[in-house]
Each structure stands twice: as C-alpha cells, then as structure tokens.
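REQUEST ID: PR-0412
SUBMITTED BY: lab tech R.K.
PRIORITY: routine
TASK: structure prediction, single protein chain
INPUT:
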Amino acid sequence: MRTLLTTAVMLAAALANGCASSPQASFYTLSVERPQEPAGAGDGTPSAIPSWAIVMGAVTVPEIDDRPQFVRRVDVNRITLDEFSRWAEPLKSQIRRVIAADLAVQFPGALVSAYPQNVDPALTYVVSIDVESFESAPEAASVSVLWSVKPPKEGKAVSGRSVVSEPTGTQGNDALVAAHSRAMAAVSNAIAAAIRSTRR
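STATUS: complete
OUTPUT:
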C-alpha cells in the first residue's frame, strides 16, 4: 500500500512539473503604420459629417495561412506551423482592420469602415483584397496582394498587385510581425494612390 501511495505521489509530482514547464503560446496582432505620404497628402480634413466613404469589401487569404498558428517558410516546398506563436484573431480579419485603419489615416475627410455599412453607394469606394501569399521567414516578411478599388457610381474600377518584402532586421516574432505590418502599410499606400487617382 505504501509503495502504491509513493508511486501515486511521484506520478502527480511529475505531472505537475510537466504542466508547469509547458511553454505558453504568445499571441500577436498586426499594427497600423504611419503613412508614407507627406503631411497634407490625405484627401480632406476631419469633419462631423464625412462627404464620402471607403469600405472594405471581400478579403481573402490562402487556406494555408488561414489558421491561428504562424506559418513559417522553411524552403520552397516545406513549411512549419508554430503552435506557440499565434495570431490573436483570424488573419483575414486583421488585414481588413489594418488596411481600413491605414486608409483612415490617409483620408481623414472620409468615413472609413472595415465592414460594409449603410452608406450611399454614390459616395462610397469599395476596396477588395485577395492575398496571394503571406510568407514568414527569419530574414523577411513577404506578401503578394491583388487589390481593387471600385469608385462610387459607375466609376471604372482600378486594380493592382502589390508585391512587398520587408526585412525583419533581427530575429524574433516581434520583428517578424512588425515587418508584416510594414508590408501591409505598403499595400495600403498603393490602394490610397489608386483612390487619389480617381478623385482628381
């Protein structure tokens, strides 16, 4: 009986030590970067009643990246999933939110929303995003994004592809996520330029 009790105590202690030493997952979000456009390049100034709007339409990401875990590129045909480095919310939701926030900074006179709202289609630009690749490597964060801007009324849509690679500068998840945020800011800048081209 004493032997069984001793064994049970040792087993419980081993389990407790195992739980205590298990690594904890860290959670990350993309962030809004300062626009590259010079001061005053935004269209309009803040007002109580915006005269036009920008809304995010469809946003898609590759299925391989549509998961909580960080997807790390090992070589051209191999990836790894990092179970302890995770996105705090779905990647497509973060991309939608960050691009909308970037555009809101660049166009302070517009009502910018991450989701379609009850806005007047005659005054609203619709931005659609198709992320072709979202690559994470130790030395760089790289994205390839197809985007389109549908102007109000019967305006002709403007489309483009942004291929961006941002060096991490150092090892670690913080540097990698910051590089991805800069890459998405570059995409936002291209979209903002397309919007401006239709408002001249």
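NOTES: The longest strand covers residues 124-136.
REVIEWED BY: pending
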